[in-house]
Design a protein that fits this description.
This protein has 207 residues and is an alpha/beta fold. It contains six helices and 13 strands. It has a six-stranded mixed sheet with strand order 3-5-8-7-9-12. Strands 1-13-6 form a three-stranded antiparallel sheet, with no helix packed on it. A hairpin with a 5-residue loop joins strand 10 and strand 11. It is globular, with a radius of gyration of 16 Å.
């Protein structure tokens, strides 16, 4: 797991950590390593902008973000090229899964709004490893949806920079982006690279 310095309630998974969505042994091992509960709040990710509130662990239905004010409750999303994001408030935390549709729809903004609805404000954010503009070749549909963030791959194909687009939605928030492109860094699962069904998990909680 990647544990960003200064964020004691944030952990980004790598391929070697295993897929904790359905493998309870993996989830128990990760939880033990992080010193958190094995009972996580999870969602069925649908590439949208819905953010749900978690007061208890378990599956919370279709959404792409989870927010909580409950101390010690782990929230988790899974990715394999999409962008994992953690928003940290003064007494809340949110975890977000952002594909290009979620980025275009403003899922990070939705998570900020969900924290505000709990009477809190976002103090900082961490963007985890995801497919970088170096590898994310896209067509006109994505380019138009994520307008203003056009880039080029290492082969000079048209791409978009999802991380930059998310940072724009988090304007005014201290934001850390963890380096690493899932598509060419083999320590991460990448659907674009191998069509793998496996995912790495991002876990966030209020210590």
């Amino acid at each position: 797991m990647i544990l960003p310095r200064g964020f004691p309630g944030v952990a980004f998974g790598e391929a070697s950590d295993g897929d904790a969505r359905h493998d309870l042994d993996v989830r128990e091992r990760i939880s033990t390593d992080l010193g958190i509960s094995t009972e996580w709040a999870l969602i069925d990710q649908v590439h949208g902008c819905r953010v749900v509130r978690a007061d208890v662990p378990g599956h919370l239905g279709e959404a792409d973000g989870i927010v909580t004010a409950r101390r010690g409750l782990p929230l988790a999303v899974a990715t394999a090229d999409c962008v994992p994001i953690v928003l940290v408030g003064t007494r809340t935390v949110a975890v977000v899964h952002a594909g290009w549709r979620g980025v275009a729809g403003g899922v990070a903004t939705s998570a900020r709004r969900a924290i505000a609805e709990l009477g809190d404000t976002v103090q900082a954010a961490v963007i985890g490893p995801h497919i970088g503009p170096c590898c994310y070749e896209v067509g006109s549909e994505v380019l138009e949806a994520v307008e203003g963030f056009e880039a080029r791959t290492t082969e000079e194909k048209v791409s978009v920079d999802l991380g930059a687009a998310i940072r724009s939605q988090l304007a005014g928030v201290e934001t850390l982006q963890i380096p690493g492109c899932t598509a060419h860094d083999e320590e991460f699962n990448s659907y674009r690279r191998t069509r793998t069904p496996r995912r790495q998990v991002t876990v966030a909680w209020i210590p």
